[in-house]
């Protein structure tokens, strides 16, 4: 049996184990069972994302996609180890940035990585029914949606109705920013503050709150730098306070 002291998640090793299981005629349930047992804690899940991102930004990505055996192993069920709330921005493809494959991540992508009812329900589903070990709210460098939230009311007023509502979800996060003259640094702070607000919002939901209290999950923040490809993780409570 898999214990809690498993080595960090290694996609290549997992692929080999699935292959071995298929060769020895293991049932689909057994093969599916290879996955969740390996991610024993939220810390393991954070470690897997950090390692995957390091592979990505250092040009050593394994790109574990579309392998026939992995697909077959997932017919019965999905067992993603983390849920990620990220921006729809085309430069922030979550699986690629974390070098993860089919079935690894449960992803919600909305411009500005803010959640409404459907987004919250999706993350509740991931927590309650898929038993993910981690929820990551990931903002990114140069986020157009956050930039829009910094525009004047007159400018925002010219946008279509639903887009205005989306921008309105981000605005409270950027309203009381400290005065930072450097434009790039100011944008980064706005994105980070939006991430912190979304983390706080998720933590207000009873299902997520209870899962975090019993140690099933952690809710953390992240900042993706498009230029370098590196993700900064916000894991300390002081980094997460809005
Ligand atoms: Zn964005």
UniProtKB/TrEMBL annotation:
What is an example of a GO molecular function annotated in this UniProt entry?
Answer: carbonate dehydratase activity
UniProt-listed InterPro entries: Carbonic_anhydrase, Carbonic_anhydrase_sf
Keywords on record: Metal-binding, Zinc
Which Gene3D superfamilies does the UniProt record give?
Carbonic anhydrase
Residues bound to Zn(2+)? 87, 89, 140, 143
Please give the cofactor(s) recorded in the UniProt entry for this protein: Zn(2+)
Superkingdom of the source species: Bacteria
Q: Which SMART domains match?
A: Pro_CA
Q: Which family does it belong to?
A: Belongs to the beta-class carbonic anhydrase family.
Q: Name it.
A: Carbonic anhydrase
Species: Deinococcus hopiensis KR-140
């Amino acid at each position: 049996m898999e214990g809690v002291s498993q080595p960090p998640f290694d996609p290549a090793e997992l692929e080999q184990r699935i292959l071995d299981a298929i060769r020895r005629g293991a049932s689909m349930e057994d093969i599916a069972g290879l996955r969740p047992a390996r991610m024993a804690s939220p810390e393991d899940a954070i470690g897997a994302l950090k390692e995957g991102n390091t592979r990505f930004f250092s040009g050593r990505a394994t790109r574990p996609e579309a392998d026939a055996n992995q697909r077959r192993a997932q017919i019965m069920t999905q067992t993603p180890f983390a849920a990620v709330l990220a921006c729809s921005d085309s430069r922030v493809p979550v699986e690629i940035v974390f070098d993860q494959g089919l079935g690894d991540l449960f992803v919600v992508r909305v411009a500005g990585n803010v959640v409404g009812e459907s987004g919250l329900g999706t993350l509740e589903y991931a927590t309650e029914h898929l038993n993910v070990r981690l929820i990551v709210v990931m903002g990114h460098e140069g986020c157009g949606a956050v930039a829009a939230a910094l525009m004047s009311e007159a400018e925002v007023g010219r946008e279509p109705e639903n887009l205005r509502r989306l921008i309105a979800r981000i605005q409270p996060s950027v309203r009381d920013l400290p005065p930072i003259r450097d434009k790039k640094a100011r944008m980064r702070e706005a994105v980070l503050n939006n991430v912190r607000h979304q983390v706080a919002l998720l933590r207000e939901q009873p299902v997520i709150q209870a899962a975090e209290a019993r140690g099933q999950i952690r809710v953390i923040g992240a900042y993706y730098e498009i230029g370098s490809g590196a993700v900064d993780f916000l894991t300390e409570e002081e980094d997460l306070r809005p």
